[in-house]
């Protein structure tokens, strides 16, 4: 059992909550995990990424080697492409389709989508819309994304639910249930559209 | 026992708390900041009454830690690599005074300069001061070494340097904590009352002691549980792997089947016997170091007698951090072909936040400076350094903490009039005040803008030592009242701000202008805390 995943986004989008839920899920089930993240300067609207590694054997490197990631999970479509050199042959790109535009030379939406759709294995999901319309909270889009990536993560789905319970537990049952609902909505989309 | 999920920096903090530390001293700096923040937020640390307030700069922090060590208690001081330059005076001399209570100096290097202006390797400083160095290869070692570091410091009677790098600092892993916690030391003054008095006569004796103790430090490295020699069957090459370099090596042998003999180094001075063994039994040696080629250069020597490969001969890149694939290629592995980044992917550089007060300062300043010609704005280190990038292109320097004021002074001395300095509130109290005093004493015609957002923002909104004190400090240093202004940087005051800038730039002496508005991020966090507190009350 081993999954290496690059989680990508833009500073402030909250990709670390995805990593936190996964990390908690891994640790509670006696799996090894390492999760490297970006702090400091690039957090100010720059591109940020987290390397997430989960395995039933000890993990050495904090960084995923190039060509080594099973999954690129991106909460922003252009950011998904920035980490393609890390993707393993046969690996999946799971990305949100809603762009975060804070630069002038952001690519055209159509060209961006076409580039993603030219990849061998991808899931392109409008997590913002699903979070708002199906889950009832725009803030849950991160866990729609984790749900969409879950079919490709070599960790039992229940573990992910447990992880969400653990990290949101002190915020109350409503928040927990909403994020678990988001997880299921994302997974459903992915299974229907992979 | 359930493992704790901790960042490398948090593991160090928890290790120090569990290891009997009485106080941490620090100035924020990526990637070291969260060590102190973790201790500030730790209930356990609060109950143990562990000191954890921020210091004005790294030098004051290190001196306070040395004072705590003098008094017999265990102290830790934390900083980023360039912070050690600021604290270097104390650092070099603390190796000569030695420690009383255990003293751990944690320095976080930033190879590849993710958030820094250089990638200096603090192990060079450790060697310069002749101090033992610890360099964890993973988060568990970081925790264990933090506790062990205090013991080593007390056993060797000298401060110990722990050198970490960005990837270890900001990566999380499960940590097994110690089952027994070490109690804090009692107050106990040094037996030799002159130990810390570095008068030449005493300093010479202490220095001889430091020199003669090197053997003891080396023996500790030979016996260290953190250093090891692993046998290998293929002696065409031996590998010396330091700190994180060891992880990248093992990443390439997931089943632990590295055919080459390996010396893992995580404690310095380097264990001489192990080095002799591997160099004598292998045809050549590859050195994997995260940072400068410190050991590689030592082994290779100026005459390049030894067959040593690494960063100096191009086997590994001379600069930047190591990566598992870079090490893999050096070991002769074929790295799996991967996709390239499509050309449509645009760079997304960090930017000032929407609504940031620095934006209003730069907009006004740019228009006024245009009247005099560009190339005369000396800036400093903080979020406002982003003023160097489009759309502002507003600043012409960023060198070290406080250099804005003194560089503006030097340029004005050279005849570049007007010269303007832009510095943040916390950077000003860190290292700007003394430079301002120089300018005041000479009545140098410079305009100093202290862009005050009432927080140390780039590192995450820590408490600024300058808060509520800037006017008093400036007046106390001798800034004339009529040339000291505080104003509110908001778009509707644009013309008013320009008028003040213009008027003070024309003044042929020192002016200080303080645009003051709280950092937007800090404000959001403060409001959240306020709301949470109100909710808890209700």
Automatic annotation (TrEMBL), chain A:
<keyword id="KW-0560">Oxidoreductase</keyword>
<dbReference type="InterPro" id="IPR002869">
    <property type="entry name" value="Pyrv_flavodox_OxRed_cen"/>
</dbReference>
<dbReference type="InterPro" id="IPR019752">
    <property type="entry name" value="Pyrv/ketoisovalerate_OxRed_cat"/>
</dbReference>
<dbReference type="InterPro" id="IPR052198">
    <property type="entry name" value="IorB_Oxidoreductase"/>
</dbReference>
<dbReference type="GO" id="GO:0016903">
    <property type="term" value="F:oxidoreductase activity, acting on the aldehyde or oxo group of donors"/>
</dbReference>
<keyword id="KW-0670">Pyruvate</keyword>
<dbReference type="Pfam" id="PF01558">
    <property type="entry name" value="POR"/>
</dbReference>
<protein>
    <submittedName>
        <fullName>Indolepyruvate oxidoreductase</fullName>
    </submittedName>
</protein>
<feature type="domain" description="Pyruvate/ketoisovalerate oxidoreductase catalytic">
    <location>
        <begin position="11"/>
        <end position="187"/>
    </location>
</feature>
Automatic annotation (TrEMBL), chain B:
<feature type="domain" description="Pyruvate flavodoxin/ferredoxin oxidoreductase pyrimidine binding">
    <location>
        <begin position="15"/>
        <end position="175"/>
    </location>
</feature>
<keyword id="KW-0408">Iron</keyword>
<dbReference type="GO" id="GO:0044281">
    <property type="term" value="P:small molecule metabolic process"/>
</dbReference>
<comment type="function">
    <text>Catalyzes the ferredoxin-dependent oxidative decarboxylation of arylpyruvates.</text>
</comment>
<dbReference type="Pfam" id="PF01855">
    <property type="entry name" value="POR_N"/>
</dbReference>
<keyword id="KW-0813">Transport</keyword>
<dbReference type="InterPro" id="IPR017721">
    <property type="entry name" value="IorA"/>
</dbReference>
<keyword id="KW-0479">Metal-binding</keyword>
<dbReference type="Pfam" id="PF02775">
    <property type="entry name" value="TPP_enzyme_C"/>
</dbReference>
<dbReference type="InterPro" id="IPR045025">
    <property type="entry name" value="HACL1-like"/>
</dbReference>
<keyword id="KW-0249">Electron transport</keyword>
<feature type="domain" description="Thiamine pyrophosphate enzyme TPP-binding">
    <location>
        <begin position="380"/>
        <end position="513"/>
    </location>
</feature>
<dbReference type="GO" id="GO:0030976">
    <property type="term" value="F:thiamine pyrophosphate binding"/>
</dbReference>
<keyword id="KW-0411">Iron-sulfur</keyword>
<dbReference type="GO" id="GO:0043805">
    <property type="term" value="F:indolepyruvate ferredoxin oxidoreductase activity"/>
</dbReference>
<dbReference type="GO" id="GO:0051539">
    <property type="term" value="F:4 iron, 4 sulfur cluster binding"/>
</dbReference>
<keyword id="KW-0670">Pyruvate</keyword>
<dbReference type="GO" id="GO:0046872">
    <property type="term" value="F:metal ion binding"/>
</dbReference>
<dbReference type="InterPro" id="IPR029061">
    <property type="entry name" value="THDP-binding"/>
</dbReference>
<keyword id="KW-0560">Oxidoreductase</keyword>
<keyword id="KW-0004">4Fe-4S</keyword>
<protein>
    <recommendedName>
        <fullName>Indolepyruvate oxidoreductase subunit IorA</fullName>
        <ecNumber>1.2.7.8</ecNumber>
    </recommendedName>
</protein>
